[in-house]
Design brief:
Number of helices: 5
Shape: elongated
Distance between the termini: 66 Å
Low-confidence stretches: none
Radius of gyration: 23 Å
Mean pLDDT: 77
Oligomer: single chain
Structural class: mainly alpha
Order of helices and strands: HHHHH
Amino acid sequence: MIRTVLTDAQWERIAPLVPGKKGDPGRAGKDNRRFVEGVLWVVRTGAPWRDVPEYFGNWFSVWKRFRRWALKGIFEKLFLALSDEPDFEYALIDGTIVKVHQHATGAKGGLSIRPSADRAAA
């Protein structure tokens, strides 16, 4: 079973904004919610498109549809529809979440600021 990211209430808010629903001209999307969840799965996991689970469909089809929607600005519209009610679950960023890379700890030669003569004499 795939965990979903969108709640039913969130989906109800963005469902009218997605293309390919019944009543739109052209071909209707098979399952718009499953596709959006697939895109969110890629964003959440950071996995390459080729690793999209079969549950969301063929990876290339999902990527192609994502690309079309991105070029049309669909995701910006969806984001604006959901951004009026922010979720602050991940708003806190501190040293327990973000670690410094090992090469960012200091440059060769140590600190460039030396202690004053008074402190060094003490």
